[in-house]
Specification:
The complex is a heterodimer of chains A (about 350) and B (about 500). Chain A has one domain (about 35-315). Chain A is about 75% helix and about 0% strand. Chain A contains 16 helices and no strands. Chain A is globular. The N and C termini of chain A lie close together (about 10 Å). The model of chain A has no long low-confidence stretch (mean pLDDT about 90). By secondary structure, chain B is an alpha/beta fold. Chain B has 3 domains: about 5-240, Rossmann fold; about 250-335 and about 420-509, P-loop containing nucleotide triphosphate hydrolases (Rossmann fold, 3-Layer(aba) Sandwich), CATH 3.40.50.300; about 345-420, no CATH class. In chain B, strand 9 (about 160-165), helix 6 and strand 10 form a beta-alpha-beta unit. Classes of the chains: A mainly alpha (about 350), B alpha/beta (about 500). At the A-B interface, helix 9 and helix 10 of A face helix 10, helix 11 and strand 20 of B. Chain B: It comes from Paraliobacillus ryukyuensis.
Chain lengths: ~350, ~500
């Protein structure tokens, strides 16, 4: 009845539907009209050019952090440090972008690459420690998140500005912002970064599915013992995978620094882009295309939610609950899987 | 009318796409050991899971002591006095024997578990059936053979009168197998009936009273073990004639391919397991390493293949020093390795079987070009090997996980032999396989030898060692303690050598 492919698409779809349903019930329970609520959510995400542009803006870093988490995951690693890698990437991009001027064709790629490089470095450290000392990457990446957060605030205050709360703005020659994109989206903050994100998704798919290196990454992820037996260098693979993962997350930082903001504010708390990336990767089934789709959903929910309090009077906290419920249903997707299998069996 | 404890009549069980059991009859008499014989995937386990209440049959009836019953779940089976010892034990490592046995049916005094009473009961049971189990020992501290006895005791403690043993000897050493056979004999003396699932004919001939054969899900019939012989059983099971003594011409050893001198290897716990071992394998011969598990064989193989660091010593392949090189360098020097644990080392189970067939060569031409994989070439290669080595798989795109153990092993052998190595190391290549697959694998090993390759065979099955090897190196306590010719020795002598007696003493007895 179902092919496996259909099955893999059906499970996340049902998860999302159940999440929305549960959200509706909660809205009802607190005396809000779920239809109005979801209408406001929809309009807030797609209702006008401005909202649509903002949604795309939000989707851009989500794709990249989703890719970061997924790439590590496919090699058997849990990169919980995408958050810190986003922050260092942001710092590096703004640093390169604001400290000099150069022709755009040099300056912009340089700033983007600096972000990727910084993120890669932030991924390399836990990869190195995992490969050589066996230290679990989750612990190191969590710690590195805090280090990134506080170091970035120091950098903003003392290096990227003269004691201010945000960095100096980047030069125009390093900016991803586009007047054209802003105009057609009624002056949203949408920028060219979405192209970089989509290209990165293609790169991830290509590396993992088509290259010799990807064959090794996936083999190490599935079975490190057999990989070692087959002559693969498991340690090298762990380190490389964390570097690539970190580079993806670093690029997400560049999207914020060079595209959305054009500077870096000091943060009192995490941006959550990296943590949301875990959910994006999970819902997207850790594949390039899946992540683009799930990043789109998360971006739309995030941006659309801003419209719910003003239009429908539903507090934005509730939207976060709905998002959390969707993640919950995805995480427990084996229940849905089981139910579908039962269904399949009975139809036989 | 015969006195049957368990009768399964005309059982039919279907799974989507396949009929696992069709029209199978199994009638077990009170106090007999009844063998259930069949190839891997013939439907033995399915049938027993039906009896144990894990599956519901589509057709047929089950009778216990003449009364028709419906076994809807394992608890019903337990209540009817049917107990099952699975191949993979279900024990809590950190619990004691007693705690494991009473788990789920704890005797209580008030609200407190009465461990004292349970220990006494278990000790008595253990004595009655000659199991010799210490009820206070922790599971993680006792041997695999002992753990199996705990499983048996667990079913007896719950009042089982019919015991299903699912391939119980697969995990045991020859000595432990002997002990298990004795235990089975004393169990039936006490009136217990045993269903023994197996594909080892020798065991059937040794302890069983009757034997029911299944082939490809069909019941073939029941024979009296006294009136049959291994050859008849094998042909009943496989559906064609099987030769046991592998046909081979005398070996013609040539120049030395593998030379090991003074090798020392430590295990994970940092204990020296290989203690200054010397060994030599020549082109055109099969050297079998005999020994009881845990005498350093695993460490030896892992050091040879680069999976484990050697402390000291020289390993040379065709004269080239390969000690402590990376597995890739060693592979490229001309060594192939059929690993002992095919799931852990031999296969990436989530990869398609076709991609598993290039596990060591994926980075070479024509499979990879400038770092890009050529799936066309990979699957062309896979189709060739699948055909040549008769790997039964729905397609080369099927995940390795979905194949039966025998076909997984065939795929590994295809991959390793196809690389045409100078030295082929086969560690327990037929573990858990049925006679048909074993015959196939033995033939391939001998073919390699005849092509002038060196073969190093590690096995815990003495039959295999005696049948296939041209020279036997007996390993004990980290050393080769004897080199014997298979035609000049026998199981008794090998058994003694493996237990550490010297060649001289073994000869005296």
């Amino acid at each position: 009845m179902f092919t496996n492919r259909l099955f893999n698409i059906l499970v996340p779809l049902i998860s999302v539907f159940l999440g929305l349903l549960a959200g509706a019930i909660i809205m009802l329970a607190f005396g809000y009209n779920p239809i109005n609520g979801y209408q406001a959510l929809w309009n807030g995400a797609f209702g006008s050019g401005y909202f649509f542009g903002e949604t795309i803006r939000q989707v851009t870093p989500y794709i990249l952090t989703g890719l970061a988490v997924a790439f590590a995951f496919r090699s058997g690693l849990f990169n919980i440090g995408a958050e810190g890698q986003v922050i260092v990437g942001w710092v590096a991009a703004v640093w390169v972008g604001s400290s000099f001027e150069a022709p755009m064709i040099i300056h912009l790629p340089l700033a983007v690459l600096a972000a990727a490089f910084a993120g890669a470095l932030w991924g390399f450290l836990p990869g190195l420690l995992k490969a050589t000392k066996g230290v679990h990457e989750v612990i190191i990446t969590i710690m590195l998140n805090y280090i990134a957060l506080h170091v970035s605030n120091y950098m903003i205050r003392h290096v990227l500005s003269d004691g201010g709360d945000s960095s100096d703005p980047i030069a125009n020659s390093a900016s991803l912002a586009s007047d054209w994109l802003m105009q057609i989206t009624e002056y949203s903050r949408m920028h060219y970064g979405i192209l970089i994100a989509l290209f990165a998704a293609f790169i991830m798919w290509f590396i993992l599915e088509k290259t010799t290196a990807g064959y090794e990454f996936r083999a190490v992820g599935f079975n490190p013992d057999a990989s070692k037996y087959a002559g693969m260098n498991v340690k090298k693979n762990i380190i490389t995978s964390m570097i690539i993962s970190g580079a993806f997350a670093g690029l997400a930082g560049a999207m914020e620094g060079l595209g959305t903001f054009g500077y870096m504010p000091s943060h009192s708390a995490f941006t959550n882009l990296g943590f949301d990336g875990i959910a994006v990767a999970l819902l997207g089934g850790n594949t390039g295309l899946g992540i683009v789709i799930s990043a789109f959903l998360f971006g739309a929910l995030k941006v659309g939610a801003l419209n719910m309090p003003t239009t429908a009077g539903v507090p934005s906290e509730l939207v976060e609950i709905v998002i959390a419920l969707i993640i919950f249903f995805v995480a427990s997707s084996y229940i849905i899987r089981w139910a579908l299998l039962r269904l399949r069996k009975e139809e036989k | 009318m015969e006195n049957y404890v368990v009768e399964m009549l005309r059982i039919r069980k279907e799974f989507p796409g396949i009929v696992a059991n069709n029209n199978i009859n199994l009638q077990v008499k009170q106090g007999e050991i009844h063998a259930l014989l069949g190839e891997n995937g013939a439907g033995k386990s399915t049938l027993m899971n039906v009896l144990f209440g894990l599956y519901q049959p589509e057709q047929g009836e089950i009778r216990v002591k003449g009364k028709q019953v419906k076994i809807t779940n394992p608890n019903v089976a337990n209540d009817l006095g049917i107990g099952m010892v699975h191949q993979h034990f279900m024990l809590v490592d950190t619990f004691t024997v007693t705690q494991n046995i009473i788990l789920g049916s704890e005797p209580k005094r008030g609200t407190v578990v009465d461990v004292k009473k349970a220990e006494k009961d278990i000790e008595e049971l253990s004595k009655k059936y000659g199991l010799d189990v210490d009820p206070r020992a922790k599971i993680r501290d006792i041997s695999v053979g002992m753990q199996q006895r705990v499983e048996i005791l667990k079913t007896l403690y719950r009042g089982a009168e019919v015991l299903i043993l699912d391939e119980p000897t697969a995990v045991l050493t020859p000595q432990e197998i002997k002990e298990l056979m004795n235990i089975m004999k004393s169990l039936i003396k006490e009136g217990i009936s045993i269903i023994l699932i197996t594909h080892k004919l020798k065991e059937i001939m040794e302890v069983c009273d009757r034997c029911t054969v299944i082939r490809k899900g069909e019941g073939i019939g029941t024979v009296d073990v006294k009136e049959t012989n291994p050859n008849e059983l094998a042909s009943l099971m496989v559906g064609r004639e099987i030769s046991f003594t592998t046909e081979k011409s005398p070996a013609q050893p040539q120049e030395e391919v593998l030379s090991i001198k003074g090798l020392e290897v430590k295990d994970i716990r940092n204990v020296l397991m290989v203690k200054g071992l010397d060994l030599s394998v020549k082109a055109g011969e099969i050297v079998g390493i005999a020994g009881i598990d845990g005498n350093g064989q695993t460490e030896l193989i892992e050091a040879l293949t680069g999976l484990r660091k050697a402390e000291t010593g020289d390993i040379r392949l065709n004269g080239k020093l390969i000690t402590n090189l990376s597995p890739r360098k060693i592979t490229e020097s001309g060594l192939a390795h059929i690993p002992q644990d095919r799931h852990k080392f031999g296969l990436v189970l989530d990869y398609p079987i076709g991609e598993n067939m290039v596990l060591q060569t994926y980075y070479k031409k024509p499979f990879s070009n400038m770092g890009i994989l050529s799936f066309k070439e990979i699957y062309k290669h896979a189709n060739k090997l699948i055909e040549e080595y008769d790997v039964r798989t729905p397609s080369p795109y099927t995940p390795a996980r979905a194949l039966s153990g025998g076909n997984q092993q065939k795929a590994i052998i295809a991959r390793e032999v196809d690389r045409s190595p100078e030295l082929l190391i086969a560690a327990q290549p037929t573990r858990g396989l049925d006679v048909g697959a074993i015959e196939f694998i033995h033939k391939r090993l001998i073919e390699e030898r005849d092509k002038g390759k060196a073969v190093l065979l590690l096995s815990f099955e003495l039959d295999e060692i005696l049948n296939v090897s041209d020279r036997i190196a007996v390993m004990f306590d980290g050393n080769i303690v004897a080199n014997v010719k298979p035609e000049e020795t026998n199981e008794q002598e090998l058994g003694l050598l493996m237990a550490g007696s010297t060649k001289q003493k073994a000869g005296d007895q």
